[in-house]
Amino acid sequence: MNRKFKGGKLVIASHNAGKVREIGDLLASFQTDVISAATLGLAEPEETGTTFAANAELKALAAARAANLPALADDSGLAVDALGGDPGIYSARWAGPSKDFAAAMAAVHAKMGATADRAARFVCALALAWPDGHVETFEGVVKGEIVWPPRGAHGFGYDPFFLPLGGSLTFGEMDAAAKHAISHRADAFAKLVAACFQ
C-alpha cells in the first residue's frame, strides 16, 4: 500500500529552477505548497547512486530530513543508445559546473560521431520521501532520437536536441503544456499521483 501525501508543504529537492518550475506546474491542481530546496538553503547531497532511482531517493531523503517536511526529488537524464546509455545519470555533469548544456549537447553529438543510430530516451525517477525515512519511487520514460543542430529555446537541459518518437518538434520547440503531456517527468508524475496523491 502506497503512503499518501496529505497536503501542505512539499519540498522540491532541487536547485534547478527549470525542474522546480516544471514540477510546480505538474502539482498545481493539488493541495500543495511547493518550496524549493534552494529557497530553504538546503545543501545538495552528493549523488552517489548508480541509478536514477537511487539518486532521486538519496536527494528526497536528505531534503525531507533536513527540512522535517515531505520532499520530492527528481533524478533524470538523457540516455543515448549509441553511447551505451551515456550521459545517463551523469547528464548534468556533462554540462560542467556552469551548467552549459549547449556544450553538453555538442559533446554528446561529437561522441556519437557519424553513427546512424540516433535512438535516445529521457528517463525520470521521482522519489517522494518523508522525514521518518519512508520513500515512494516511480520511473517514467519517453523514447525519441537525437537531432542536430539543436532546435528551439523552450524547456531546459538537453531538450533542444531531443525529438520524441513520432513527433515533429523537439522538446525545445514545444510549449510547456505540450511537453508536459508526453514527457518522461509527466509519465513518472502520473504514476506518483495515482499512488500517492489520490
From TrEMBL:
Substrate binds at residues 14-19, 76, 156-159, 179, 184-185. It is an enzyme of class 3 (hydrolase). Mg(2+) binds at residues 46, 75. InterPro entries: dITP/XTP_pyrophosphatase, ITPase-like_fam, RdgB/HAM1. Binds 1 Mg(2+) ion per subunit. Its cofactor is Mg(2+). The active site is at residue 75. Its EC number is 3.6.1.66. It comes from the Bacteria. Keywords: Hydrolase, Magnesium, Metal-binding, Nucleotide metabolism, Nucleotide-binding. It catalyses: ITP + H2O = IMP + diphosphate + H(+); XTP + H2O = XMP + diphosphate + H(+); dITP + H2O = dIMP + diphosphate + H(+). It holds the Pfam family Ham1p_like. Pyrophosphatase that catalyzes the hydrolysis of nucleoside triphosphates to their monophosphate derivatives, with a high preference for the non-canonical purine nucleotides XTP (xanthosine triphosphate), dITP (deoxyinosine triphosphate) and ITP. Seems to function as a house-cleaning enzyme that removes non-canonical purine nucleotides from the nucleotide pool, thus preventing their incorporation into DNA/RNA and avoiding chromosomal lesions. Belongs to the HAM1 NTPase family. Homodimer. PANTHER family: INOSINE TRIPHOSPHATE PYROPHOSPHATASE, INOSINE TRIPHOSPHATE PYROPHOSPHATASE/HAM1 PROTEIN. This is dITP/XTP pyrophosphatase. It comes from Magnetospirillum sulfuroxidans.
